[in-house]
Specification:
heterodimer; A: alpha/beta; six-stranded mixed sheet; four-stranded antiparallel sheet; 10 helices; 40% helix; globular; B: mainly alpha; two-stranded antiparallel ribbon; 25 helices
Chain lengths: 256, 615
């Protein structure tokens, strides 16, 4: 069996008395889309923050393509090919939409800062190539019309899409998306679903925290259900929909 | 033994002022999350008003003191209501910092216009005869200072812990949004805390004024000491503010008494740096800190401005023609001012990359000018080094200082770099003034040769003008190349969202260090050229006043534009030269311009013009 894109082993984390992650273990096979679902406060975003080393874990280990992440800074985690988005779209205000996308390509820059400062032809060529790829990605996401707009003036749904595009610009091997469909309307959600399928088809492993069940069930290969910091169930979308514990913990909670 | 006790008592008395300034910082910080750099200036404003009421209008001491404290509180109220409070909800934290630096400059300028630049002293409240306490002779003023401090600390404690108003203030400090929902008028509470901070600053300033001599710009020493006290004691902790202030006062007095008064400023910096290294959160960690994970969605981030394509080319061509032709049409006097403008622009350019692009505030840019200027000038004048080599040596030393400062502040978020740079600038100030044998002391270093490259001497303003123009063109060319590429995007990402930047693989500390080094290098180069151009260098030419002035130049001209600062530099350099009688209003005008620009023209002169043109 190939090395998992992401492997968490016995992760635990408490904030004061709140146990946000309790002995969480899972593996994400490369090239698949895993959805993490669960009621509000289940610990989904905390799990992302633990996996990307934003918070230190109390116990347990995370490996990305076999490499342990312990002790690495957020920037070093990104260098391993793990790129994440945030629950509240964290685009860079004051930069244009295109500049935001190009900022995603930070790790790809082959030319040194010095060669950029000296306006060397190689550096300018690289910059033009980046711009072309950024524009192509904006086109795919339907954001091409906003190319030179201030990113913070976009509607929230577009900002979330922009954040995904920005992450893709980094050519990640593994991408963690925190509620990408929040703030999107039905048509935009359908577009997002096809974007996610295309990303997966390009060999990029995806882990998605999402509330939108039709999106999750439509695109996920594997679903992990969290409640109160623990994994309640995991399996294919069909298995999850048939699991009575999930209905109790998640669907039941939603209905009330 | 008795001398040691006396020194320690002197330290406690001085520390009392630091403690009250620190308390004012803490009060405003807890409610607003902003650091108010103008805090120390209110101490001095109080002392000045006291002087006028008591000495000029012959009011009785008690009435004059009450009048001065109330007048200062009224000034605090007006300034708070007119600038600080309305700006708070609109500006990002770094701009608030600049705004309060503007308020500090404004208050200093106001004192300069009203009371002039000479030092003042107040007589003690109850005569010169010392009293004996526990076998030691104490100046009676010491009892007044201790009494005022105890009264203020007790009063603030009572207000916060025992009154409904205090409860509302604490609610604002803990969670402004929730406080608002509970019907608390957060703006009014902010204004109240700002005014109260000015009021207690005035009381401590009035009490301490008889034991020191003060002048228009003494306030900034109280600001830096109060700020250091806060950092040592723990930002946001009231106990920490008082303890930090007393500790700092005692340490400074002991250092001044037993080593040299030269090191009084140095010890503040050393204590501060030691605290930041060993215990970054300070001695007393605030029980509750403000939530830092809440992002300020509604605040304005002025976009970085650029002119594209044909417009940019046209602009560059016109600029090139004007810059080349200017020396042939202006008088000799204006020529010199243009050279000064160019040299200062070089230093402000560095500040623009640091502040405008990377969002890091430096209040000590002139400190690097001093390092570069004095190193080059001393080596060239006294040791026969070539100016070019001297300049290079200055650069190396400046980069060393910058590296040391960034290593200390790198891991810390928020205002620590600004604090460390302010302390650095003040330390350099005291060294350039104090090391008389090396630097010439307050009267300056004379007989500095002209800048030379090989056998060619840049000994006229016109030659110097072209040298500076070429250096500027090179610097702007290099920076523009960097800014337009991944380097510039990384800096802007760091400016607006460090967490998101790091998640994209941007090594945030590394970029902060790189940009701080660039900024220090440009300032150092400017300082060297400055010395070689004037053939003279004195501490106030490259002192903290200059650092604050350069911030005004940058912000007024337009942050994050590279070209913009030249408008601010020219405005604040050429106009005072052309209208000499107005020179005394310069500091005041800088303060007003800075505050107005931060508040109403976030892109500065150039940013506003360029965004109109680009539309």
């Amino acid at each position: 069996m190939s090395v998992p894109a992401l492997q968490a082993t016995a992760l635990s984390k408490s904030f004061g008395g709140v146990r946000a992650a309790v002995d969480v273990s899972f593996a994400v096979p490369p090239g698949t889309l895993t959805a993490i679902i669960g009621p509000n406060g289940a610990g989904k975003t905390t799990l992302f923050n633990l996996v990307t080393n934003l918070f230190p874990v109390d116990a347990g280990e995370v490996r990305c393509f076999g490499t342990p992440l312990a002790g690495r800074t957020a920037a070093e985690v990104a260098k391993l090919g793990l790129i994440r988005t945030f629950q509240s779209a964290r685009i860079f205000p004051g930069m244009t939409v295109l500049e935001n996308v190009l900022a995603g390509a930070h790790l790809l820059a082959g030319s040194s800062t010095l060669s950029q400062m000296l306006w060397l032809p190689a550096a300018r060529r690289e910059e033009r190539a980046l711009i072309a790829r950024g524009e192509a990605l904006l086109e795919i996401a339907g954001l091409a019309a906003y190319r030179d707009a201030a990113a913070n003036e976009l509607p929230i749904g577009a900002q979330k899409l922009l954040e995904v595009i920005r992450g893709l610009m980094a050519r990640p091997r593994l991408m963690l998306l925190d509620e990408p469909a929040a703030g999107l309307n039905d048509a935009e959600t359908a577009e997002l679903a096809s974007l996610l399928r295309a990303v997966r088809a390009n060999g990029i492993t995806l882990v998605v925290v999402e509330h939108n069940m039709s999106l999750v069930m439509g695109v996920a290969d594997q679903v992990i259900v969290l409640d109160l910091g623990s994994i309640v169930a995991s399996g294919t979308p069909a298995e999850i929909q048939a699991n009575p514990r999930v209905v109790a913990a998640y669907v039941g909670a939603e209905a009330t | 033994m008795e001398q040691a006790a006396q020194t320690l008592i002197g330290g406690i008395l001085q520390g009392s002022v630091f403690a009250i300034v620190a308390l004012g910082f803490t009060l405003v910080f807890r409610v607003t999350g902003a650091i108010n750099l103008s805090q120390g200036a209110f101490c001095i404003l109080g002392a000045f008003v006291m002087f006028s009421l008591e000495q000029t209008f012959h009011w009785p001491v008690a009435v004059a003191a009450a009048g001065a404290a109330l007048a200062t509180a009224a000034a605090g109220f007006l300034i708070g209501a007119g600038t600080f409070v309305p700006a708070l909800s609109r500006l990002p934290a770094s701009s608030m910092f600049i705004l309060t630096a503007g308020l500090l400059t404004f208050l200093e300028g106001l004192c300069l216009v009203v009371w002039g630049s000479e030092p003042y002293a107040l007589p003690p409240f109850s005569g010169e005869a010392p009293v004996a306490v526990l076998g030691m002779r104490l100046p009676t003023q010491g009892l007044w200072i201790v009494g005022a401090t105890v009264a203020i600390v007790a009063g603030i404690w009572w207000l916060l812990m025992r009154t409904a108003l205090g409860e509302a203030l604490r609610a604002c400090a803990e969670n402004p949004a929730a406080a608002r929902l509970m019907g608390i008028d957060v703006e009014r509470m902010t204004l109240f805390s700002f005014t109260l901070a000015a009021f207690i600053a005035a009381i401590s300033g009035i009490a301490v004024a008889p034991i020191l001599s003060f002048q228009f710009d003494t306030g900034r020493f109280f600001t830096i000491s109060g700020f250091s006290a806060v950092a040592i004691g723990g930002l946001g902790s009231f106990v920490g503010a008082v303890a930090g202030g007393e500790l700092l006062g005692a340490a400074e007095q002991l250092a001044a008494g037993y080593i040299s008064s030269l090191f009084a400023n140095g010890i503040a910096l050393a204590l501060l740096i030691a605290t930041l290294l060993v215990r970054p959160s300070g001695l007393f960690v605030a029980r509750r800190t403000r939530r830092e994970d809440v992002r300020d969605e509604h605040r304005i981030y002025h976009p970085v401005v650029r002119l594209r394509g044909a417009r940019g080319l046209l602009f560059a061509t016109v600029t090139l023609l004007v810059v080349t032709g200017l020396p042939w049409v202006v008088s000799e006097g204006i020529m010199s001012s243009l050279v000064i403008t160019g040299i200062l622009f070089l230093a402000v350019l560095g500040l623009d990359v640091l502040m405008g692009y990377a969002g890091q505030v430096s209040l000590g840019q002139a400190g690097f000018m001093a390092v570069g200027g004095y190193t080059a000038a001393i080596l060239a004048t006294n040791y026969g080094w070539s100016p070019l080599l001297g300049t290079a040596a200055g650069l190396v030393l400046s980069l060393g200082c910058a590296a040391a400062l960034s290593l200390v502040t790198m891991r810390l978020r928020g205002h620590y770099l600004a604090l460390a740079t302010l302390a650095f600038g003040l330390l350099v100030d005291s060294l350039t003034v104090g090391m008389t044998e090396v630097t010439g002391g307050p009267s300056g270093l004379v007989g500095i040769p002209a800048f030379t490259i090989g056998a060619f001497a840049f000994d006229t303003p016109r030659k110097m003008y072209y040298l500076v123009a070429v250096l500027l063109a090179l610097a702007i060319g290099l920076l523009l190349g960097g800014i337009r590429s991944s380097f510039g995007r990384a800096l802007q990402a760091v400016r607006t969202d460090q967490t998101a930047a790091a998640a994209l693989g941007i090594d945030v500390p590394r970029y902060k260090m790189a940009v701080f080094a660039i900024s220090a290098a440009l300032a150092s180069l400017a300082g060297s050229l400055y010395a070689f151009f004037f053939h003279f260098l004195s501490p106030e030419m490259v002192g903290t006043q200059r650092s604050l002035e350069m911030i005004a130049m940058l912000v007024v001209g337009g942050e994050g534009t590279l070209i913009g600062p030249v408008f601010g530099v020219a405005l604040l350099t050429l106009i005072p030269t052309m209208f000499q009688p107005l020179a005394i209003y310069k500091t005041l005008a800088e303060g007003v311009l800075l505050v107005v620009t931060v508040r109403y023209l976030p892109g500065g002169i150039f940013g506003t013009l360029a965004s109109r043109l680009a539309r």
